[in-house]
Design brief:
single chain; mainly beta; four-stranded antiparallel beta sheet; three-stranded antiparallel beta sheet; 13 strands
Length: 191
């Protein structure tokens, strides 16, 4: 059960207990914690020229029918709780995490629903202020699983490819393997 400030896991006994001629069930409410994860991406490329070159390569691909962009991906780190932890797919615009029985929406700092993949902005257009830092928010994440173990999250920089109606998350290694993205890989590999 989710309230404005907390999430509770509600369980009840399967067998009732008879007391004074009435049947009673044991109901347990367990308050679960949430964490808010803020990721800061800092571009370290001096005057932004490298980002401009990356954007030029991305624009060439877009003209050929492929959308490619850098992003941050939220994932579980060590394990997925033996299969008990699940997360929405990157192509889903409204992300969620499910630990145990309840699916919890992922929010940003303004309480908007966000995906597990969030785009990193290059900010390279003429006249646009060179933004060297960008904050990405993954809020409302469950802190504990149903056994009380801490859920561990990680974020990774990835590339998202949208092509022929399909969305695919590419690691840096996958970017390097694709001949079509060789120039972009050469530009981002020093980071």
């Amino acid at each position: 059960v989710t309230t404005d400030h907390h999430i509770y896991e509600v369980t009840s006994s399967e067998e009732p207990v008879e007391l004074a001629g009435s049947l009673f069930y044991t109901v347990t409410n367990r308050r679960l914690g949430n964490i808010n994860l803020t990721v800061t991406k800092e571009w370290k490329d001096g005057d932004g020229e490298r980002r401009k070159r990356i954007q030029e390569e991305i624009d060439k691909l877009k003209n050929e029918g492929t959308t490619l962009y850098p992003a941050v991906l939220l994932d579980f780190s060590d394990s997925n709780g033996g299969g008990a932890y699940t997360m929405s797919k990157p192509e889903e615009k409204e992300g969620w995490v499910k630990i145990g029985t309840e699916q919890v929406p992922i929010r940003d700092d303004q309480d908007n629903s966000v995906s597990v993949v969030q785009r990193l902005e290059l900010n390279t257009e003429d006249g646009q202020e060179q933004q060297e830092q960008q904050k990405i928010y993954f809020y409302n994440l469950p802190k504990y699983d149903s056994t009380g173990q801490v859920v561990r999250y990680q974020v990774r920089e990835v590339w998202v490819e949208e092509k022929d109606g399909k969305t695919e998350v590419l690691t840096r290694d996958k970017l390097a393997e694709n001949e079509e993205y060789k120039e972009i890989y050469n530009l981002v590999s020093p980071y």
